[in-house]
Amino acid sequence: MYIEKVKLDNFRNYENGEIEFDNGINIIYGNNAQGKTNIIEAIFLCSMGKSFRDKKDKDLIKFSKNSSKVSLEYNKVDRKCKIEAVIDDKKSFYINGVKQAKVSDIIGKLNVVIFTPEDIDIIKEGPQRRRKFLDMMISSLKPNYIHLLNKYNKAIEQRNSYLRQIKFEGKDRNLLEVWDEQLSEISFEIYKYRKFYIEKFSEKIQDIHNLITKSGKEQIEIKYVSSGTTKEEFFTKLRKSVDIDISRGFTTSGIHRDDFFVYINKKEVSTFGSQGQQRTATLTLKLCELNVVKEEINDAPVLLLDDFMSELDEERRKNFLENITGSQVILTCTDKMQIEKNAKIFFVEKGICKKEK
Question: pTM for the complete prediction?
């Protein structure tokens, strides 16, 4: 799988622009705030239906304009495809000219794996960051997972609202059981997906870590910690937490509080690992993601590296690039990066992207 062309119209700081990529390594360089990340963002938008920056959709429209459009042409194993994103009062997507009923309908059509400087914090930050990393990957592979997450979040909002009504309005607490039954069923389905993919990571993580570290002296493990493993267990924990949930006004137990931990030599990396170990463990996780996605779709996803290499020392950068095979790479950096492999080079300045070689 590789992207042939991206066209930007009134997207961020691009009035209009067209970029033709090579199916190997593509390097986009330039000073900060010139538009490098906007190209990565446009590609991600056409893959996942939203920005990875967690900004409002209207922020994607060039200042003083009323709408923006991204057109992306790409090749899969057996066919060529085109995705278009149009943003005005709302957000619309088209696949090969056919308007999609929902934003989620485009997810999984173009598979990308993205690395950003913020990904270094997957290990260091709290469980919400790690759940987001895992949920995003599963969503790109299994459309039903997105449906389950949406159902769960809606049910949690309703339960939390009713908890506050019990606390402040004296509503019947027995009615909570309706939401607890529903949440238990959805939780178990989400749990099965997460457990399956954590096990996939576990199968690969040691070999990938050895390739990055080159030492073979670190034993790495990944473990998933859930609030339950069966529908009955999820339900029981929800029932047991009713009193504290009413007191606090929100649901304290459930799949929305799950986490996973990475250990090096039996020590939890986020707490006891050095900064170098935390960075290497993050690289290992992302390469695990790349390999899992490749295995699941039977094709190589597009690899997006947004100023990621600046976070790595020369040795980690070299080891990382050596372990990427078969994927198209689109990376951004402030200085022209010299790498051993052939690459197509682009320079970006003031929202204009020009090919150098």
Answer: 0.91
